[in-house]
Design brief:
Elements: H1 2-9, H2 27-32, E1 35-40, H3 45-57, E2 62-67, H4 75-84, E3 87-90, H5 94-106, H6 118-127, H7 131-141, H8 146-152, H9 157-170, H10 176-184
Parallel strand pairs: 1-2, 2-3
Helix pairs in contact: 1-5, 3-4, 4-7, 7-9, 8-9
Length: about 190
């Protein structure tokens, strides 16, 4: 039903590909993709890490994540979802909103949507992260090492290390484990 509606409403979409696992999709398919729709209903940091890598590799693709409220309970997942997704849709309204989102995307009118849980909103307000720290934070919480991060963002390893230390200092932690614990504390 959804595919038929899309063909009528947005004839610019030539092909729709379904995959149960993101690893089953070939690189050539990602390079051609105008939009990547992910049904992210169960918490899985590994899937989010894979999606973050794909997003960095194929910057022109538009990521739409269909989520559940439970996905925003973890601050780490919240940060990764907001970094990956150009648009998020609650599963209850998924079909209706997905059709509208893809129709707007075909016309290049789609705004960016960001959702934050209360803990992340409070932490973000208290810490006053710089633009660079905000850009590096998703890579840090996804477990990437400084050298890996330099491959994704065009900055030196020393710069990444400096900003990582600043992030740890601002959150009053000494390592990534401390950062995870800080994000999962109740306010």
């Amino acid at each position: 039903m959804l595919v038929e509606n899309l063909k009528i409403e947005s004839p610019s979409f030539k092909k729709v590909l379904y995959a149960d696992d993101i690893k089953d999709v070939k690189k050539v398919e990602f390079s051609r993709a105008k939009a990547i729709v992910v049904d992210y209903g169960q918490s899985d940091i590994k899937v989010l890490n894979s999606l973050l890598e794909i997003k960095n590799r194929y910057e022109n693709s538009y990521f739409i994540l269909i989520t559940r409220d439970a996905c925003y309970e973890s601050t780490i997942e919240n940060i990764l979802i907001n970094t990956i997704a150009d648009h998020t849709i609650d599963c209850k309204n998924a079909v209706r909103k997905l059709c509208a989102c893809l129709a707007h995307l075909a016309q290049e009118e789609q705004p960016v949507t960001i959702i934050k849980n209360a803990r992340w909103h409070q932490l973000e307000k208290q810490q006053h992260l710089t633009r660079m720290e905000t850009m590096l934070l998703p890579y840090i919480v996804s477990g990437k090492k400084n050298k890996e991060i330099t491959r994704y963002v065009n900055v030196s390893g020393k710069t990444v290390s400096h900003h990582r230390r600043n992030i740890y200092r601002k959150f009053s932690v000494t390592n990534l484990t401390g950062l995870y614990k800080k994000f999962d504390q109740f306010l």
